[in-house]
C-alpha cells in the first residue's frame, strides 16, 4: 500500500512539474536568454559604439564649410505594403510620426547621389562649438523612441549608403526579447537588435520612463521634480553604458530645471523640436530639429535641408 502511495505521489509530482514547465517555459527561456534586456544593467554597447568618438578630417577650411546644418527628426518607417488602417489617423491619413519606406529610401538615395555627409553626434557638437569645419552638404539624422522598425526597415538602408544616425531610445520600453515584427504594433528595439545595429546607430537617451504626460497634458520633464528627472534619466544612462553625449526631450518639452538636471548627469547637448536649422553659437541644450512627415515630397525634403539642387 505504501509503495502504491509513493508511486502515485511521484507520478503526480512529475505531471505537475510538466504542466508548470509547459505553461511557463517562455519565461524560463527569457530569464536565461542573453538577449533579454536587464532592467537595471547596461546594454553592453560601449565597445560597439567606439566609432562614435572618432572625428573625421573632412579637409574643409572654415571659410568653405557649412554655415548651418539641418538636423532631421524621424520616428517610424514602415514598408508601403504594411500600411493598414491601424496606422492611419481619423482623417484616413498616415499618422504624423510615420513615413513610408519608399519615401525614406528616396530621401537617403538623394542624399547619397548628391554627396551629403551624415555627421556623427561628436562631429556635429564640434561644428556647433566652432571647433571643426564640416562640408556644406552635411546633415544630422536622428530617430526618436527606438521603434523596432528602425532595425527592420531603416538600418539596412542606412548601412547600404554608409550613413550614420542618432537613435534616441526610451530605455524603459525596450523589448525584453526580440519580437516577431508586426508593423501595426508599437514594438520597441530589443537588446540584441540594438547591439546588431550599433555600427550605424549612435544610441542616446530619450529618458527611461518619462516619455509621458500627466493628467493636465504636461510632459513629465516639466511636471516632475528635478530629483525625479535626474533619477529617471540616470536609469536610462545605466542602460546605455553612460553614453551621455546627447539627449532628446520627449515631446520637445523642457524648462530651465530640465536643462540643469541633464547637465548634472554630464549630458553635453540636447535636442528640441523647434523647426529651424542648427548654427554654431546656439545654446547646446536647445538644438532645433526639422521633422520629416508622411506628406513630405522629395521636393519638400530638399527644401528642408536648404538645397536648390534637382
At CATH level 2, the architecture is Alpha-Beta Barrel
CATH topology-level name: TIM Barrel
Global morphology: globular
CATH class: Alpha Beta
Calculate the terminal CA-CA distance, rounded to whole Å.
92 Å
The total count of helices amounts to 9
Low-confidence runs of at least 5 consecutive residues: 3-9, 13-34
Helix content: 25-40%
Strand content: 5-15%
Give the SSE order as H and E letters: HEEEHEHEHEHEHHEHEEH
The structural class is alpha/beta
Total tally of structural domains: 1
Q: What is the total tally of β strands?
A: 10
Radius of gyration: 23 Å
The mean pLDDT is 90
CATH superfamily: Glycoside hydrolase/deacetylase
Give the SSE map.
Elements: H1 2-32, E1 70-74, E2 76-78, E3 98-100, H2 101-113, E4 117-118, H3 121-128, E5 138-145, H4 149-160, E6 165-169, H5 191-196, E7 201-205, H6 220-223, H7 226-239, E8 246-248, H8 256-264, E9 269-271, E10 290-291, H9 298-304
Parallel strand pairs: 1-5, 1-10, 2-3, 4-5, 5-6, 6-7, 8-9
Helix pairs in contact: 2-4, 7-8
Quickly describe the structure.
Helix content is about 35%, strand content about 15%. It is of the alpha/beta class and about 300 residues long. Strands 1, 4, 5, 6, 7 and 10 form a six-stranded parallel β-sheet that branches. A two-stranded parallel ribbon has the order 2-3. A two-stranded parallel ribbon has the order 8-9.
Describe what this molecule looks like in 3D.
Residues 137-310 form the NodB homology domain. Residues 3-9 and 13-34 have low confidence and may be disordered. This protein is an alpha/beta fold. Helix 8 (256-264) links the parallel strand 8 (246-248) and strand 9 (269-271). Helices cover 34% and strands 13% of the residues. The longest helix is centred in the first third of the chain and has 31 residues, at 2-32. Helix 2 runs parallel beside helix 4 (149-160) and helix 7 packs across helix 8. It has helices at residues 2-32, 101-113, 121-128, 149-160, 191-196, 220-223, 226-239, 256-264, 298-304, and strands spanning 70-74, 76-78, 98-100, 117-118, 138-145, 165-169, 201-205, 246-248, 269-271, 290-291. It starts with a helix and ends in a 6-residue tail after the last helix. The protein has a single domain (61-304), classed as Glycoside hydrolase/deacetylase (TIM Barrel, Alpha-Beta Barrel), CATH 3.20.20.
Amino acid at each position: 500500500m505504501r509503495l502504491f502511495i509513493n508511486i502515485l505521489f511521484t507520478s503526480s509530482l512529475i505531471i505537475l512539474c510538466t504542466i508548470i514547465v509547459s505553461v511557463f517555459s517562455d519565461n524560463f527561456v527569457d530569464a536565461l536568454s542573453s538577449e533579454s534586456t536587464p532592467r537595471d544593467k547596461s546594454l553592453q554597447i560601449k565597445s560597439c559604439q567606439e566609432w562614435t568618438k572618432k572625428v573625421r578630417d573632412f579637409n574643409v577650411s572654415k571659410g568653405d564649410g557649412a554655415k548651418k546644418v539641418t538636423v532631421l527628426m524621424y520616428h517610424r518607417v514602415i514598408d508601403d505594403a504594411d500600411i493598414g488602417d491601424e496606422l492611419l489617423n481619423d482623417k484616413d491619413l498616415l499618422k504624423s510620426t510615420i513615413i513610408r519606406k519608399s519615401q525614406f529610401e528616396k530621401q537617403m538615395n538623394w542624399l547619397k547621389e548628391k554627396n551629403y555627409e551624415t555627421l556623427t553626434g561628436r562631429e556635429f557638437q564640434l561644428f556647433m562649438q566652432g571647433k571643426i569645419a564640416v562640408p556644406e552638404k552635411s546633415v544630422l539624422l536622428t530617430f526618436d523612441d527606438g521603434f523596432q522598425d528602425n532595425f527592420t526597415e531603416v538600418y539596412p538602408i542606412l548601412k547600404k549608403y554608409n550613413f550614420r544616425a542618432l537613435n534616441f531610445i526610451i530605455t524603459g520600453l525596450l523589448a525584453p526579447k526580440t519580437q516577431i515584427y508586426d508593423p501595426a504594433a508599437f514594438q520597441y528595439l530589443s537588446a540584441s537588435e540594438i547591439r546588431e545595429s550599433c555600427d550605424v546607430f549612435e544610441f542616446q537617451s530619450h529618458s527611461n520612463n518619462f516619455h509621458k504626460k500627466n493628467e493636465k497634458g504636461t510632459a513629465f520633464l516639466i511636471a516632475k521634480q528635478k530629483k525625479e528627472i535626474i533619477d529617471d534619466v540616470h536609469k536610462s544612462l545605466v542602460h546605455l553604458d553612460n553614453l551621455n553625449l546627447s539627449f532628446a526631450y520627449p515631446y520637445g518639452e523642457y524648462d530651465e530645471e530640465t536643462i540643469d538636471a541633464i547637465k548634472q548627469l554630464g549630458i553635453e547637448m540636447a535636442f528640441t523640436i523647434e523647426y529651424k536649422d542648427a548654427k554654431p553659437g546656439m545654446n547646446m541644450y536647445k538644438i532645433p530639429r526639422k521633422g520629416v512627415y508622411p506628406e513630405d515630397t522629395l521636393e519638400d525634403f530638399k527644401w528642408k535641408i536648404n538645397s536648390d539642387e534637382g
